[in-house]
Backbone:
C-alpha cells in the first residue's frame, strides 16, 4: 500500500506483528519465559463512514490491535495509519483525530463526578470551553444522564460508568471512534440507545467507528464489515452476509399448512421429500420440517408443490446462519 | 510472600535507617560516640544506645506494618472488590485475618533477626545481640505482636467504615511511635501519657526486650510483665475480632463490603 | 511543544487534582496533625542524648527544624510522583491520559504539584511546631537559603522522574520508593550536616544530585561554609554552587528523557496499564 492511499482511508494496518513476553510459574522459585504472539501479520483497511467490527475469541488480539491504532502500544513490526497519520511517527496527530472508549469500568476518576470527568477529558483533548459544555449538555440529554451525572463516579453502577466512558469518546467530535466492547454490562435500554448512537455516528454523521464486541448479534446489527480475528490473524473479513455465506451450515425450513384431512404419507408423497419430518401442529395444521444446505433451491419448489396440491400455507420459518455459527466454525480449535 | 522481595528488603533495612537518624543526631549532640554512650547511660540506664534504638525501630516498623497490612490492605481489597470474594469464600473476614496475623508474626520474628544482625554489625554492637537472652527477646516479641495484631484488627474495623484511611494510619503510626517509647524509655513521658502507653501491648514488650538484651529495667519483673502482655494480647485480639465482626455486619446492613 | 500547551495541561491537571484533594478533607487536616507529631517524635528521640538542664546548640536546632521542613517539601517529587503514576496505572486512567493529544508529563505532574503546594503548608506547620518546641527558629541568610531551596526544586523533580522510571515496573512500589526517598533524605544531609557524617557516607552523598543544593541551603541558613566537598578536592564555596546550578539544568532534562524512555518501553512491552 502506498502513502497516498493511506492518507485517505481512516484506518489502515499493514502486516502488524506484536508479541508479548510473560512468565509461567513452575514452582515457588522457578518460572519460565513465554512469548505470546498477539498479532501475527494483520493487515486491513477501513473505509470512511464504516462501522467496522473486530470479532474474535478471548486472546485473539482485538484489544491489542485497537491499542496499536490508538498509539497505546507500539507494534514489533508492520505499520498502521489512522486518518492518514502513522501511529508510531505522528501519535499526537492520531490522538487529535480519534475518540476512544476502552473496555472496563476503571477508566474514570472515581472521586470526580461524571460531568467533571467529561470536562477534564474534554479539556485535555483540546476542546474549547463553549464546545465542551454544549457537547456535554447534548450527551446528557441524549442518554438521560441527569439523575447521576453530578454524582461521584464511585457511586455509579457498572452500566452508568460505561455510559459515561462512551460519552467521553464522543465529546471530542473526532472523525474516527474506537469502541472496545461498549455495551458490556449495559441494560437492554442503554444498550439499544448506544447502538442507535453508533448508527447515527456512521450513517448520519459519516464518522468511522471501529467496534470490538463479543456479542455476535450486535455485530450483525451494526457492522458494515467485520474482521474475525483468531490466534492473532485475520481468519475472515467481509460483510456479515458474506461471512455467513462462507459457512455452509445446514438450515432448517419449517412450513405450517392446513391439514385438509390429508395423511402424513400422502403429504410426504406430494412434496417428494422423504426426509421431511411431518408432525401434527394442532388446530387442524400440519408442520413440515426439512433440513437443507440450500434454502434458495428447496423453498420455492416446496411451496409450489404445496400450493399446486391445494394446501394453504400458514407460516414459513427459515433458520438463519448466524455470526455465532461463523465465529464457532472459523475459530474452533484455536487456543 | 516470596513474590514481594521489595517488602522483605525494606523490612530488613527500614529499622536500621529509622534508628540511624537519632543515632547520628545523638552522636552529634553529644560530640561523639563516647559522649553519647555516657549521656545515654545516665539518662536511660544503658550505654548501648544503638541497640536500644534498633530494637525500638524494629518494633515500630512491625506495628506500622501491622497497621498498614490490615488497614490499607482492607481498603485496597474493599476498593478492588476482592474483599467481597474473601467474605464469600470464608464466610467472614475474621478467620482469614487471623491466619494472616499468625503468618505475620512469624515473618516479623525472621525480619527482626535479620535487621538486628545488619544494624549490630554496622554499629559494632553484636555482643549485645549474640547472647542467649536474644531467644527470650524473640519470644517476648512474638507475645507482644499478638496484641499488636489484635490492635490492628480494631483499626481495620475502623478503616472499613472510614473512607480516608491513609491519613488516619499516618497519624496512628506517629502516635504509636511517640507513646510506645520507640526512641526513648516510656518514663520520659508525662504520667497520664505513661498510663496510655502501658495499656498498649507493644510498650511493655518493647521495654522488656530491651531489658533482656541490655539489662535495663523491667516494668515490674519479667514474669509479671509477660503475664500482663499475655492478658493484654488476649483482650486486644478478642476486642479486635468483635469490632471487625460488628463492622462487617454494619457495612452489610448498609452499602455492602464493596462500598467505598 | 509550545509552553502555552504545557502550561494549559498543567493547569487542567492541577485543577482536577485539587478538586479530588478537597474530597478528602480528613487527609488535608490529618497531614497537618502528622507534621506536628513528626516534630514531637524527633524532639523526644534526641531527649536521651541531652545532658540535663543544657540548652540545645543552635546549629543542631537549625538542622532538626529545617531538615524536617525539607523532608516534607521533598516528599512530593521523591515519593508522591512515583506513587501517583502507579496509582493512575492501577486505576486505568493512565491510558486515558495517554489517549489525549495534550502533553502527558504535565498531566501526570498535577498530583505531585498539588501535594507540593500543600506540603509547603505542612512544612510551615512543622517549622512553627519545631520553633515552639526547640526554642526558636534559627536562620542567617534566609533569602539566599530560599534561593537554593528553589534551585533544588527542579533537581528534586528530575530525580523524582528518574525514580519513577526506575520503579515503573517494580511490583511493590511503596517499599521501594520509600527506601529510595529515605536514602536520599539521609544521604543528602536533610538532618545531618556533612561534616559530622562518616567519611564513606559523605563520599556517597557527593553522588546524590540533591546534596549540593541542600548543602548550599544549609550553608546560607547557618552562615557557615559548604561542607559536602572535602577541602582536599577543591574550594567547596566555588564548586558546590556551580554543581547545584548545573544539576538544576541537567537533572530535569535527564528526568524527562527517563520518563519518555520508560513510556516507550512500556508501549513496546505490554502497555501502560498495570498488569
Residues:
Amino acid at each position: 500500500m502506498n502513502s497516498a492511499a493511506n492518507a485517505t482511508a481512516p484506518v489502515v494496518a499493514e502486516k502488524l506483528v506484536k508479541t508479548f513476553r510473560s512468565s509461567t510459574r513452575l514452582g515457588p522459585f522457578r518460572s519460565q519465559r513465554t512469548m505470546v504472539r498477539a498479532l501475527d501479520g494483520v493487515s486491513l483497511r477501513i473505509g470512511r463512514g464504516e462501522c467496522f467490527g473486530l470479532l474474535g475469541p478471548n486472546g485473539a488480539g482485538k484489544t491489542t490491535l485497537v491499542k496499536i491504532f490508538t498509539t497505546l502500544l507500539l507494534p514489533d513490526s508492520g505499520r498502521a495509519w489512522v486518518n492518514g497519520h502513522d501511529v508510531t511517527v505522528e501519535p499526537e496527530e492520531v490522538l487529535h483525530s480519534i475518540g476512544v472508549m476502552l473496555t472496563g469500568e476503571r477508566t474514570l476518576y472515581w472521586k470526580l463526578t461524571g460531568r467533571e470527568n467529561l470536562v477534564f477529558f474534554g479539556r485535555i483533548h483540546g476542546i474549547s470551553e463553549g464546545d465542551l459544555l454544549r457537547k456535554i449538555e447534548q450527551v446528557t440529554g441524549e442518554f438521560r444522564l441527569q439523575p447521576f451525572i453530578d454524582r461521584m463516579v464511585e457511586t455509579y453502577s457498572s452500566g452508568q460508568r460505561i455510559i459515561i466512558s462512551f460519552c467521553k469518546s464522543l465529546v471530542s467530535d473526532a472523525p474516527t471512534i474506537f469502541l472496545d466492547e461498549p455495551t458490556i454490562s449495559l441494560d437492554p435500554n442503554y444498550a439499544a440507545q448506544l447502538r442507535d448512537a453508533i448508527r447515527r455516528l456512521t450513517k448520519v454523521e459519516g464518522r468511522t467507528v471501529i467496534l470490538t464486541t463479543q456479542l455476535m448479534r450486535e455485530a450483525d446489527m451494526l457492522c458494515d464489515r467485520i474482521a474475525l480475528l483468531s490466534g492473532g490473524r485475520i481468519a475472515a473479513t467481509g460483510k456479515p452476509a458474506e461471512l455467513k455465506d462462507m459457512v455452509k451450515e445446514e438450515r432448517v425450513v419449517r412450513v405450517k399448512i392446513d391439514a385438509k384431512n390429508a395423511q402424513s404419507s400422502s403429504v410426504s408423497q406430494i412434496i417428494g421429500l422423504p426426509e421431511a419430518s411431518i408432525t401434527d401442529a394442532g388446530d387442524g395444521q400440519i408442520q413440515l420440517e426439512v433440513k437443507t444446505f440450500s434454502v434458495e433451491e428447496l423453498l420455492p419448489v416446496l411451496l409450489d408443490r404445496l400450493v399446486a396440491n391445494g394446501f394453504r400455507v400458514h407460516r414459513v420459518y427459515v433458520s438463519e446462519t448466524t455470526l455465532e455459527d461463523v465465529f464457532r466454525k472459523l475459530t474452533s480449535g484455536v487456543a | 510472600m516470596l513474590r514481594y522481595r521489595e517488602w522483605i528488603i525494606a523490612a530488613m533495612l527500614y529499622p536500621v535507617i529509622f534508628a540511624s537518624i537519632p543515632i547520628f543526631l545523638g552522636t552529634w549532640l553529644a560530640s561523639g560516640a563516647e559522649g553519647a554512650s555516657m549521656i545515654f547511660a545516665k539518662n536511660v540506664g544503658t550505654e548501648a544506645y544503638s541497640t536500644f534504638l534498633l530494637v525500638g525501630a524494629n518494633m515500630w516498623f512491625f506495628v506500622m506494618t501491622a497497621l498498614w497490612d490490615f488497614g490499607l490492605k482492607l481498603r485496597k481489597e474493599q476498593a478492588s472488590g476482592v474483599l467481597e470474594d474473601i467474605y464469600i469464600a470464608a464466610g467472614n473476614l475474621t478467620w482469614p485475618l487471623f491466619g494472616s496475623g499468625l503468618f505475620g508474626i512469624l515473618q516479623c520474628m525472621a525480619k527482626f533477626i535479620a535487621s538486628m544482625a545488619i544494624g549490630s554489625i554496622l554499629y559494632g554492637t553484636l555482643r549485645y545481640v549474640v547472647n542467649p537472652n536474644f531467644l527470650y527477646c524473640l519470644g517476648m516479641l512474638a507475645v507482644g505482636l499478638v496484641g499488636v495484631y489484635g490492635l490492628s484488627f480494631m483499626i481495620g474495623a475502623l478503616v472499613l467504615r472510614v473512607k480516608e484511611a491513609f491519613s488516619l494510619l499516618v497519624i496512628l503510626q506517629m502516635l504509636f511511635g511517640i507513646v510506645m517509647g520507640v526512641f526513648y524509655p516510656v518514663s520520659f513521658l508525662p504520667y497520664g501519657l505513661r498510663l496510655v502507653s502501658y495499656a498498649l501491648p507493644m510498650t511493655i514488650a518493647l521495654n522488656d526486650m530491651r531489658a533482656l538484651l541490655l539489662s535495663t529495667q523491667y516494668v515490674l519483673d519479667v514474669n509479671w510483665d509477660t503475664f500482663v502482655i499475655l492478658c493484654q494480647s488476649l483482650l486486644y485480639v478478642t476486642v479486635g475480632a468483635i469490632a471487625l465482626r460488628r463492622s462487617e455486619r454494619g457495612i452489610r446492613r448498609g452499602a455492602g463490603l464493596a462500598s467505598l | 511543544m509550545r509552553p502555552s500547551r504545557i502550561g494549559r495541561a498543567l493547569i487542567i491537571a492541577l485543577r482536577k487534582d485539587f478538586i479530588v484533594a478537597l474530597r478528602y478533607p480528613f487527609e488535608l487536616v490529618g497531614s497537618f496533625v502528622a507534621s506536628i507529631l513528626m516534630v514531637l517524635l524527633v524532639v523526644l528521640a534526641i531527649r536521651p542524648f541531652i545532658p540535663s538542664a543544657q540548652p540545645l546548640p543552635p546549629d543542631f536546632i537549625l538542622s532538626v527544624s529545617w531538615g524536617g521542613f525539607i523532608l516534607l517539601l521533598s516528599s512530593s517529587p521523591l515519593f508522591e510522583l512515583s506513587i501517583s503514576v502507579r496509582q493512575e496505572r492501577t486505576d486505568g486512567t493512565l491510558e486515558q491520559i495517554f489517549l489525549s493529544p495534550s502533553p502527558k508529563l504535565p498531566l501526570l505532574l498535577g498530583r505531585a504539584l498539588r501535594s507540593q503546594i500543600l506540603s509547603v503548608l505542612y512544612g510551615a506547620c512543622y517549622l512553627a511546631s519545631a520553633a515552639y518546641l526547640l526554642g526558636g527558629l534559627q536562620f542567617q541568610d534566609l533569602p539566599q537559603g530560599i534561593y537554593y531551596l528553589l534551585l533544588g526544586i527542579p533537581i528534586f523533580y528530575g530525580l523524582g522522574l528518574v525514580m519513577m522510571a526506575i520503579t515503573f515496573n517494580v511490583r511493590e512500589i511503596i517499599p521501594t520508593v520509600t527506601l529510595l526517598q529515605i536514602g536520599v533524605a539521609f544521604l543528602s544531609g536533610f538532618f545531618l550536616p556533612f561534616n559530622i557524617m562518616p567519611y564513606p557516607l559523605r563520599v556517597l552523598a557527593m553522588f546524590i544530585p540533591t546534596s549540593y543544593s541542600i548543602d548550599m541551603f544549609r550553608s546560607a541558613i547557618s552562615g557557615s561554609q559548604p561542607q559536602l566537598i572535602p577541602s582536599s578536592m577543591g574550594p567547596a564555596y566555588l564548586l558546590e554552587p556551580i554543581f547545584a546550578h548545573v544539576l538544576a539544568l541537567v537533572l530535569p532534562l535527564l528526568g524527562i528523557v527517563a520518563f519518555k524512555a520508560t513510556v516507550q518501553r512500556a508501549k513496546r512491552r505490554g502497555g501502560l496499564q498495570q498488569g
Residues 49-80 of chain B form the longest helix (32 residues). The mean pLDDT of chain B is 83. Chain B touches chain C through 44 residues (CB under 8 Å).
